Amino acid sequence: MEGAVYAIGRNRIAKIWFDESEASLQRLRRFYNALAATSFRFEIPRIHEIHRVEGRCVTIEQRLAGTSLADLVETGHVGLDDARSTLVDALAELAGNGALPAARTLPVMDESAPLYEGSEDFSNALADVAERRLARFRRTLDSAVEELDKKVVALRARLHEVDSRRRSVIHGDLIPGNILIGEARTPTAVLDWGFFTTEGDPAFDGAVAASLFDMYGDGALNTELDLYAQLEDRLGYERETLLVYRAAYSLITANAYDAGGNDGHFAWCVGALNRPDVVDALLA
């Protein structure tokens, strides 16, 4: 969780950030301004003011209308099939708006520099951050991921091979809780950009969103594979591409929340990196 959010009237919220600096929030503000200039049919956050209060940054932002897709599913107001279809609708909208160079200025996760600082190529930039994460967390990953070095070497080549060369803004954390739905049961807003927001192949966003939709439920794998099938059918993404991007995301984010790998996210990532279909796509 990035911070605590409080309503301050009908049209504004205040967000108290736990760790973000003023400089990083100014960068995010510029990104949101660029994003707002696109032709999305849903709203996106807007930062109106940035303040420093008792050592923490506080932003005043636009209050966005709607109910989260996650809440609607939990309360039974939206069925799982409709929720999955809505997710693909949002991914299609993101993919269809083209490149957004402003997204290249953002770092991912807790990286200090933008993803593209060392390379102008999306596949190389992903491979670079994967190798940096490996160097940082090798001891934890080495004991959990089978044939780790072989997979990391293969990843750079496979990322280059599967890259469609299409470019769009990538949300990077498009979970049902980050999609707001209006009375017409269509997306009204997409929230919480920044964790893995960048510009790149829209199939990467599809692969990540499909895997995040249900991470820990009894039917999680079936849900992921069903969403892959929808992405293949509706957006033309190839299954092999989605699986390679699943591997990249899993390696890069495995230790995002616990350096020692003692949390559910690490286990979820390692499970994917050792999963037969992911391994076959990566080592093909």
Automatic annotation (TrEMBL):
This protein's record includes keyword Transferase: yes
Domain Aminoglycoside phosphotransferase: 11-225
Gene Ontology MF term list: transferase activity
Top-level lineage group: Bacteria
Coiled coil: 127-165
Keyword Transferase: yes
Record keywords: Coiled coil, Plasmid, Transferase
The protein, known as: Aminoglycoside phosphotransferase
Organism listed in the record: Rhodococcus pyridinivorans SB3094
